[in-house]
Design a protein that fits this description.
Number of strands: 10
Helix content: 25-40%
CATH architecture of one domain: Beta Barrel
Distance between the termini: 82 Å
Order of helices and strands: HEEEEHHHEEEHHEEHEHHHHH
CATH superfamily of one domain: Catalase core domain
Radius of gyration: 25 Å
GO cellular component, one term: cytoplasm
Strand content: 15-25%
Cofactor: heme
Structural class: alpha+beta
CATH class of one domain: Mainly Beta
Keywords: Heme, Hydrogen peroxide, Iron, Metal-binding, Oxidoreductase, Peroxidase
InterPro entries: Catalase, Catalase_3, Catalase_AS, Catalase_clade1/3, Catalase_core, Catalase_haem_BS, Catalase_immune_responsive, Catalase_sf
CATH topology of one domain: Catalase HpII,  Chain A, domain 1
Organism: Paenibacillus sabinae T27
Shape: globular
Length: 485
């Protein structure tokens, strides 16, 4: 064997003698099919791109750690939160939502905020956004909502009419729409925005006692946003601005950090709170459920290879660890299936075996085979359960904590339909300058909508949130607030 370990080789390890010229019949050719190196290069090139994510296609990521700063063991038995000072390695992926893989970073869009904690009990994924709420509250509406954010099937252009038609017919979206159209709709950088788990989750302690919980990551860099004109200019001049900013900050030792807080709600309060606590279009008042500090997340290492780490990273809100469980949140319930299923399609059935996704603790199960199975594929060990040969088996102490359910099996909505109080409160919290920019952003976005009825219907929602809010938008659109509201 040659001592030169830097020889170019084929994928099966054979040295390549000529990487400049394909094998041909004479100087002109034609090319010979026996040139297996050429065939391998072309075939692999055709398969270099896995399908981009349907949503959150454009993203940036980084490695770091999470350190517990407050004892929360009275609320959860999750091992990575067990004591002050405990550090857990983690990886985060930030992303826009609607744009394609090559789209600009500085568009008006929510930002994905997906964190993977490599805990000793398995990977825990917290897959949220930079907003505490979402546009819809039932997963059955998600494909339709995302279709409105994508391109028109005939023109292949973005379609404001579809966007506002859907929102105007889905009043539960008003809270998120108000946030999106505010200054927070375009963060200055990925480092200067908060992150949220958005959904309600359940924490369970070692005694089996449960509480409901919401996650808030507060940026230590401070919240900074980007004005519309600057964002548009940068989108054209430097579409990868946010991606570069994050990479350079970490490369220069300016490690971004966030403090994690939670809101905690007693289990019984879910039946009496004035908003349904599982409705992801609503927030819990921090006056009712104050923020409790949990820990600190620091990003201190860039990926070595974007494709291997950022593009192939897979996150699922169903990746739980003992002490953290799902709630009845209807949007979350749909995501528990949809995300992992998307990864099985996009990356492959064994996506969890890739280094970026592989747990940093032992894995024992009876899943075998499938495309890209890595390692010894379970070897000769027992491959079913229950069994009589000492194979991995269930541990009853890790059953989920039960919670009561009731009612008829049917397609039903949430009991609470007040979609106006919280966006109205948000509008009234804004300064006059912030209100003016919010109104201008909405008007600019609604101006191209083809049907006046859609504009009037949406104006009605803004008016119900706050009469001034709706009236200002109507006037700038040259319309009147509908009489019948």
């Amino acid at each position: 064997m040659s001592s030169n370990d830097n020889h170019l080789t084929t994928s099966w390890g054979a040295p390549v003698g000529d990487n400049q010229n394909s094998q041909t019949a004479g100087t002109r050719g034609p090319t010979l099919i026996q040139d297996v190196h050429l065939l391998e290069k072309l075939a692999h090139f055709n398969r270099e791109r896995i399908p981009e994510r349907v949503v959150h296609a454009k993203g940036a990521g980084a490695h770091g750690y999470f350190e517990v700063t407050r004892d929360v063991s009275q609320y959860t038995k999750a091992a990575f939160l067990s004591h002050i000072g405990k550090r857990t390695p983690m990886f985060i992926r930030f992303s826009t939502v609607a744009g394609e893989l090559g789209s600009a970073d500085t568009v008006r869009d929510p930002r994905g905020f997906a964190v993977k904690f490599y805990t000793e009990e398995g990977n825990y994924d917290l897959v949220g956004n930079n907003t505490p709420v979402f546009f819809i509250r039932d997963a059955i509406k998600f494909p339709d909502f995302i279709h409105t954010q994508k391109r028109h099937p005939q023109t292949h252009l973005k379609n404001p009419t579809a966007v506002w038609d859907f929102w105007s017919l889905s009043p539960e979206s008003l809270h998120q729409v108000t946030i999106l159209m505010s200054d927070r709709g375009i963060p200055a950088t990925l480092r200067h925005m908060h992150g949220f788990g958005s959904h309600t989750f359940k924490w369970v302690n070692a005694e089996g006692q449960a509480i409901w919980v919401k996650y808030h990551f507060k940026t230590e860099q401070g919240v900074q946003n980007m004005d519309v004109e600057t964002a548009a200019r940068i989108a054209g001049e430097h579409p990868d601005y946010h991606t570069e900013d994050l990479f350079n900050a970490i490369a220069n030792g300016d490690f971004p950090a966030w403090k994690l807080y939670v809101q905690i709600m007693p289990i019984e309060d879910a039946d009496t709170y004035h908003f349904d606590p599982f409705d992801v279009t609503k927030v819990w008042s921090q006056k009712d459920y104050p923020l409790i500090e949990v820990g600190r997340m620091v990003l201190d290492r860039n990926p070595e290879n974007y494709f291997a780490e950022v593009e192939q990273a897979t996150f699922s809100p169903g990746s739980f660890v003992p002490g953290i469980e799902a709630s009845p949140d209807k949007m979350l319930q749909g995501r528990l299936f949809a995300y992992a299923d998307a990864h099985r399609y996009r990356v492959g059935p064994n996506h969890n075996q890739l280094p970026i996704n592989r747990p940093q603790c032992p894995v024992h199960n009876h899943q075998r085979d499938g495309a890209m199975a890595y390692g010894d594929n379970g070897g000769a060990s027992v491959y079913y359960e229950p069994n009589s040969f000492g194979g991995p088996k269930e541990s009853p102490e890790h059953k989920i904590s039960p919670f009561d359910v009731s009612g008829q099996a049917a397609s039903v909505a949430y009991d609470h339909d007040d979609h106006y109080t919280q966006p109205g409160d948000l509008y009234r919290l804004l300064s006059e300058d912030e209100r003016a920019r919010l109104v201008r952003n909405i008007v600019d976005s609604m101006q191209p909508v083809e049907l006046v009825d859609i504009k009037l219907r949406q104006i009605g929602h803004f008016y119900k949130a706050d009469p001034e809010f709706g009236t200002r938008i109507a006037e700038e659109l040259g319309l009147s607030v509908p009489a019948a509201l």
